[in-house]
């Protein structure tokens, strides 16, 4: 659906989410950051879903930023489809219900006319009380059938509501952010369940991992405790580093384990900004990929 306000991005006019996600796909990371595209897009989408705006503000990676927009676009398209199907089903049910009611009403009128004719024609006979009883029974039956139709319509409406709720849950997974971790996003999943084999005496991880003891964890408490065992992998490129990951990197002769809260690039290339979960401010130094030694994929307490 086109928006009333046109967005000018990378020298092009953008009028809807589909055009926006396509333009972001065609752009590179440097172009995205150098043109201040993020703030322009967020301002353009300020009247959209509040949860989407919150995710976009926390994201500094173009790929993840684009993914959030694409998922939101798919959700809107699916909701519109469900709405159309629901309205169509509702119209069909109401049409069917109206048709049945009209048929029952016509039959009732015909039967009532027959009974009244019989009553008037055979009024000299003593059987007219039976005719009145038949008329009452017919009216009662018609009323009961109409009530049954109303119950069927309400049942279909409840089924539609359940379907909408189920689809919304499937397309809108909740990101749980703990206030104890200063509103940080969790690390990227890297080990699938099929890669873990649990035996009677040991556990095997079918990945190229290593382990290390944590010596000092004050800045990462309570995520990492003193002498916790970290399960790590070695990243091959900066494309494997995401916001929320816990990484160990070299600073002078010291090895530091902190969480990535932002990734970006400058004239020297890619870099990450890190922060300890228990620290109030982020680390001052930009961490280059060459400094990163490991990425944590698991913790043993």
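Q: What amino acid sequence fits the structure above?
A:
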């Amino acid at each position: 659906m086109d928006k009333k306000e046109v967005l000018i991005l990378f020298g092009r006019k953008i009028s809807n989410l589909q055009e926006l996600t396509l333009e972001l796909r065609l752009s590179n990371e440097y172009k995205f950051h150098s043109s201040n595209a993020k703030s322009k897009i967020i301002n353009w989408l300020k009247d959209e879903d509040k949860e989407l705006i919150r995710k976009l503000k926390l994201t500094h990676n173009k790929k993840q930023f684009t993914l959030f927009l694409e998922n939101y676009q798919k959700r809107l398209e699916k909701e519109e489809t469900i709405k159309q199907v629901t309205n169509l089903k509702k119209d069909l049910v109401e049409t069917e219900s109206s048709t049945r009611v009209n048929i029952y009403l016509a039959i009732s009128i015909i039967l009532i006319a027959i009974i009244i004719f019989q009553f008037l024609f055979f009024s000299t006979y003593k059987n007219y009380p039976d005719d009145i009883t038949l008329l009452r029974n017919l009216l009662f039956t018609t009323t009961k059938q109409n009530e049954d139709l109303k119950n069927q319509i309400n049942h279909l409406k409840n089924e539609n509501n359940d379907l909408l709720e189920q689809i919304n849950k499937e397309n809108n997974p909740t990101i749980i952010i703990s206030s104890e971790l200063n509103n940080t996003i969790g690390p990227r999943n890297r080990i699938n369940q099929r890669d873990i084999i649990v035996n009677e005496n040991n556990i095997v991880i079918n990945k190229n991992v290593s382990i290390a003891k944590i010596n000092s964890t004050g800045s990462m408490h309570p995520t990492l405790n003193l002498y916790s065992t970290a399960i790590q992998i070695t990243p091959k490129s900066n494309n494997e580093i995401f916001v929320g990951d816990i990484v160990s990197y070299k600073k002078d002769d010291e090895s530091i384990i902190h969480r990535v809260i932002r990734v970006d690039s400058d004239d020297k290339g890619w870099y990450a900004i890190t922060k300890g979960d228990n620290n109030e401010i982020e680390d001052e130094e930009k961490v280059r990929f060459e400094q990163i030694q490991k990425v944590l994929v698991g913790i043993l307490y």
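Q: And what stands out in the fold?
A: Strands lie at 7-9, 12-14, 196-198, 203-205, 210-213, 229-233, 246-251, 254-266, 269-275, 292-300.
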